[in-house]
Design brief:
The protein is of the alpha/beta class. The chain is built from twelve helices and 19 strands. The strands form six sheets. Strands 1, 6, 7, 8, 9, 10, 13, 14 and 17 form a nine-stranded mixed β-sheet that branches. Strands 2-3 form a two-stranded antiparallel ribbon. It has a two-stranded antiparallel sheet with strand order 4-5.
């Protein structure tokens, strides 16, 4: 699947002689659009605009127009139709949540043995003593997956989870780590995984955003919109941020003084002006702006119902913890995520701990206790609700951060960044639950078995969506670009 952008042909620069005084020959590279714009003072373009289908204009769904977000078939049979990515920003500690290390507690207070080699962390060379894990661990479900007492509700879903203990990344700081987990690269500027997914698969509901992003507080996520941007691809594939609070989509409802007819007239006129302007330019940002106006109009009918949770039962709200102070915010976001994928949204990403709140360089006990208290029940509620509605089979749920934490202590009671071995998990969407994949060493520092790099994780997610990451190509400046930067392998053993 390759897009080749048609170059925009500019008029030649005049030379020393008057070009109007010389005979002209047809320019074979002149497009039909350019011909209409440049002939007869552009009256041909006016005629063309009158022939364009009305569905191109705001107020009517683009059913007859070719939309870049129409649903498409993948390269192979998909097991997942949509993705919900639960991003724990800041780096949750795998060795305190999903990866028990008895040896770590035995060696607590001692320096890291020389057998592990020199370790460079975000704060420099690691010289601090090992920090014991204070959690209590139990096996859960028929599968016997190990989880700590920080996540009792997620533990009740153990048989639905594939816990990947051997994740590896390149970014040692938050900016590079978050960037890579979202875009595949530690350097900004590439399309996000959500953008690649919507580019490859489109969306099943043209009246809702294909790619939605929410965060749990007003603090900016590290790198901001670049995490869900489209990079060098057309801007229409970028994520749409919405709020998980009382008014999820700001300015969606027009004022009472503006009737439906007046609103339609205004948007029709605005769309015609924008399209006339866009006809002479090749700017994906402008095309995306036009598409967003058209989508916004359609959303005025569709989105209010999609984001209105008032009709949900009290039992459902309690399942997500919306009735409790600590879990109300993230619970509302998880419930919105379920409602969106239920209505055809392709990719939903939820940031928990926005602003690197999971970054526990000190006081990890109080830090992770509070964050797990706010995250555990909503995430479990999401899994149980999706399963009860028959949606978990077609919805891939991914949980994790940009990296994990070190077994060595920092500031006496915290842990530093650890991209060399950490845990993520997947559930639903064709994933075989109740399994543990890979392992880290005796203290949880390095992944040693079935190491899965970020590129492998992205390739696996795309594979479950029916996309071959090596065949999903976007040509940019003559270079074939891929979501995984020509690296990575889909880990097919994760599938049921």
């Amino acid at each position: 699947m390759t897009i080749h952008a048609r170059p925009y042909h500019k008029a030649p620069e005049p030379g020393t002689r008057n070009p109007d005084s010389e005979p002209r020959t047809p320019d074979p590279s002149l497009s039909r659009r350019d011909l209409l714009l440049k002939s007869g003072m552009g009256f041909g373009a006016l005629a063309l605009s009158s022939l364009l289908p009305s569905s191109l204009f705001a107020g009517e769904p683009a059913r007859s127009a070719v939309s870049p977000l129409l649903p498409r078939k993948g390269h192979h049979a998909a097991t997942a139709k949509s993705v919900i990515f639960l991003f724990m920003e800041g780096g949750p500690s795998h060795i305190d949540l999903f990866d028990p290390k008895p040896e770590l507690n035995k060696l607590a207070g001692k320096p890291l043995p020389d057998s592990f080699g020199t370790v460079i962390t975000a704060m420099g060379e690691a010289r601090s003593p090992l920090l014991a894990c204070k959690r209590e661990w139990k096996q859960h479900g028929k599968s016997g997956l190990w989880m700590s007492d920080w996540i009792p509700n997620i533990a009740s879903c153990a048989d639905d989870l594939a816990v990947i203990r051997s994740c590896v990344a390149d970014g040692i700081n938050h900016s590079s780590g978050v960037c890579q987990m979202n875009t595949g690269s530690i350097l900004a500027g590439r399309p996000s995984l959500g953008a690649w997914t919507t580019y490859g698969m489109g969306t099943e509901n043209q009246d809702l955003p294909a790619f939605v992003v929410m965060q749990d507080n007003a603090t900016a996520v590290v790198n901001g919109p670049r995490n869900w941007g489209a990079g060098f691809m057309p801007a229409i594939y970028q994520g749409t941020p919405i709020d998980g609070g009382a008014e999820p989509i700001a300015n969606l409802t027009p004022p009472n003084s503006v009737g439906a007819g007046r609103q339609k007239t205004k948007l029709d006129f605005l769309t015609r002006m924008n399209r006339a302007h866009a006809a002479t330019r090749q700017q994906s940002e402008l095309d995306a702006r036009i598409a967003s106006y058209e989508l916004a109009y359609r959303m005025q009918a569709e989105a209010p119902e999609a984001v209105d949770v008032s009709g949900e039962s009290d039992a459902t709200k309690a399942l997500y913890g919306i009735d409790q102070k600590d879990t109300a915010r993230f619970g509302g976001m998880c419930l919105l995520a379920r409602r969106l994928v239920e209505r055809g949204t392709r990719f939903v990403q939820l940031y928990h701990g926005a602003g690197s709140k999971w970054d526990a360089h000190d006081k990890i006990e109080s830090n992770h206790s509070a964050l797990c208290r706010g995250m555990d029940l909503p995430v479990a509620g999401l899994l149980k609700d999706l399963k009860a509605r028959g949606l978990l089979d077609s919805t891939l749920v991914v949980w994790g951060g940009e990296f994990g934490r070190t077994p060595m202590s920092e500031k006496g009671d915290g842990r530093d960044h650890n991209p060399t071995g950490f845990t993520m998990w997947m559930a639903g969407g064709g994933v075989k639950g109740g399994q543990t994949i890979g392992s880290t060493d005796e203290v949880g520092l390095h992944a040693v078995e079935d190491r899965l790099h970020v590129h492998d994780l992205h390739a696996t997610i795309l594979h479950l969506m029916g996309i071959d990451h090596e065949r999903l190509v976007y040509t940019y400046k003559g270079r074939p670009e891929r979501a995984t930067l020509n690296e990575g392998t889909a880990y097919r053993k994760i599938m049921g």
